[in-house]
Design goal:
By secondary structure, the chain is an alpha+beta fold. It contains 3 helices and 14 strands.
Length: about 200
């Protein structure tokens, strides 16, 4: 899930940025410090959308830089258990598919790609035995997060599933809706009725 978080920090502005307007220099330093920052509490920092307040500058003897107490906002992405996400299939391997959900990639084990027996092809596709559904690179999919690990803080791991109803490749979901649509049921009912009348006439 995406969050907008307000933080306070001591920001060091070096002399080479003194020629810039203060806010611009401070934003530059915050972005330099926080862009791409990852933590279990904050998630993954994506951007610095705004500055709330800049305190009075302090110069420390022997340093030459100015230090400011700054209140600012961060835009972060923090994956949550059971969260439904939309992403694009980035790569497919024998053991499953890698899905990009914006600032991070997740992995969908082959057994979690669809509710079917799934086989891997050398052309990097996964195919369901019964449903004949095919999953390939660049497919847009809806998935659920079922595992989150920040053990390696520089490379958080996400596990996802697409087995439940309402999840999977968007084209599959569209097909499911069409299958359940009243118009289709009405059409099938009329066709059945027409067929029965024909048989009755015979």
């Amino acid at each position: 899930m995406f969050y907008k978080i307000e933080l306070k920090d001591h920001i060091r502005v070096p002399p080479n940025l003194f020629s810039l307007p203060l806010e611009e220099a401070v934003v530059k330093r915050i972005k330099n410090k926080y862009n791409g920052f990852i933590s279990k509490d904050l998630g993954i920092v994506i951007d610095v959308p705004g500055i709330k307040d800049i305190g009075e500058g302090i110069i420390i003897p022997g340093d030459g830089a100015s230090y400011y107490d700054v209140a600012f906002e961060l835009l972060t992405f923090k994956p949550e258990m059971q969260e439904i996400v939309l992403g694009k299939i980035k790569d497919i391997a024998e053991f499953g598919a890698f899905i990009n959900i914006g600032p991070v990639d997740g992995m969908i084990h082959i057994s979690q790609t669809m509710d079917d027996f799934v086989s891997f092809s050398k052309d990097k596709t996964l195919t369901g035995k019964e449903t004949k559904r095919v999953l390939k690179v660049n497919d847009l999919c809806r998935a659920r997060i079922i595992a989150v690990s920040f053990k390696d803080i520089l490379n958080p791991k996400l596990g996802l599933t697409m087995r439940q109803q309402g999840l999977g490749r968007l084209e599959w979901l569209k097909e499911e809706l069409e299958e359940k649509s009243p118009k289709k049921e009405e059409k099938e009912s009329k066709e059945k009725e027409h067929k029965e009348k024909k048989e009755h006439k015979k």
